[in-house]
Amino acid sequence: MSSEPSDASLVLSAHHLSKDYGSQQAVIDLSFELRQGEIIGLLGPNGAGKTTAIRVLSTILPATSGHFTILGIPDSSPEKIRAVIGVVPESNGFPRSMTGEEWLIYMGRLYGHSTAQARKKASELLHIVGLESAGRARIFTYSLGMRRRLSIARALINAPRILFLDEPTLGIDPVGHREILQVIRDAAEINKVAVIFSSHLLGDVENICSRALVLKRGRVIAEGTVSNIKQRVSVAQTYRIQVAPEAIPAVHSLLSAREDVELVPRSNHEGEIVISNKDSAGNVDVNEILHQLMQQGIVIEAFSRDSMSLSDAFLAMVEEAKV
Question: Rounded to an integer, what distance in angstroms lies between the CA atom of residue 156 and that of residue 295?
Answer without folding.
Answer: 63
